[in-house]
Amino acid sequence: MLETEDLTIRFGGHVAVNAVTCRFEPGTLTAIVGPNGAGKTTYFNLISGQLKASSGRVLLNGRELSSLPASARTRAGLGRAFQLTNLFPNLSVLENVRLAVQAAHRIGLNLWRIWSDQRELTQRALEILESVALLDRQGMPVAGLPHGDQRKLEVALLMALDPQVYMFDEPTAGMSHDEAPVILDLIRRLKQDRSKTILLVEHKMDVVRELADRIIVLTNGQLVADGEPAEVIASPVVQEAYLGLAPQGAFGSTDARPHPGLPPSGGRSLGDTAP
Ligand SMILES: Nc1ncnc2c1ncn2[C@@H]1O[C@H](COP(=O)(O)OP(=O)(O)O)[C@@H](O)[C@H]1O
Ligand SMILES: [Mg+2]
Question: Where are the beta strands (DSSP E) in 25-115?
């Protein structure tokens, strides 16, 4: 079980994540929703160790990880999508995934699997590429990938790690209509593995409604709602977020454009605090 206790970070005077206490059980998918700037990505960064908390703790299976660097948290089982800057841009898609599978094995994440030879490594890498519909790009240098394929590759590398906790931060942002379902299918399949804990930041409420076992809402760095999807979606705090916004996304993704029918600054969001 993943837990955060009073997890907090301040940037100067701004408290981006404010005393968030939450538990995430294996076998559950928790959607994290909230307006842009609510602190969702920062919360992930605090869990994965990309950012150091000002106060509070992160625990995995009772073990405190708060003082560990990101690499050690990855070894402990926290899986955050790789930054593509960590890749070898001139090596192929397949080579990169193969190296990730091999690295995961070396650091002991895949204890129950024996990648005894190169053929098996390649086989596993190909399986992963198939699951994210990147088989046809396997020979391409990573540097040349279109944006949507880069996002798929991020997910492929996360799969290669086979972590206990999967953290997806807007995994389909920037993907086309035919690319996004591939990633959502993959998350759907991951969910069937009851030993995995999945955290998903997602703006599309139809996706959240379908995939989430539970929804938590962050606003101004604070956890303001937590519960069953139907209950949280019906709550005033979430309903208010729909007002004046396009019906598709309650919160508007980071790459969303204002709804064509709305004035440029017409949308209210969960973060508005005007009385
Ligand atoms: N490294 C940083 N330095 C200063 N402020 C930051 C940093 N990272 C995030 N913030 C601020 O923290 C707040 C939360 O941002 P973020 O976690 O990206 O929100 P979300 O992912 O919910 O859209 C924002 O006000 C953002 O400007
Ligand atoms: Mg974000």
Answer: 29-33, 55-60, 63-64, 78-80
Total count of domains within the chain: 1
Domain that holds residue 103: 78-162
Nearest to 80 by CA among 43, 125, 106: 43
Nearest atom, ligand 1, residue 40 CA = 22
CATH number at residue 154: 3.40.50.300
Q: Is residue 29 situated within a structural domain?
A: no
Chain segment 205-259, per-residue pLDDT in tens: 889 999 999 999 999 999 999 999 999 988 888 887 654 344 444 555 544 443 3
Nearest ligand to the CA atom of 51: 1
The beta strand positions in 178-237, using DSSP E, are 197-201, 214-219, 222-227
> Tell me: the pLDDT tens digits for 63-77?
999 999 998 999 899
Q: Is residue 90 part of a domain?
A: yes
Is the pLDDT at 85 greater than 80, yes or no?
no
Among 11, 201, 203, the mutation site with the greatest number of ligand 1 atoms within 8 A of its Cβ is 11
Ligand nearest to the CA of 35: 1
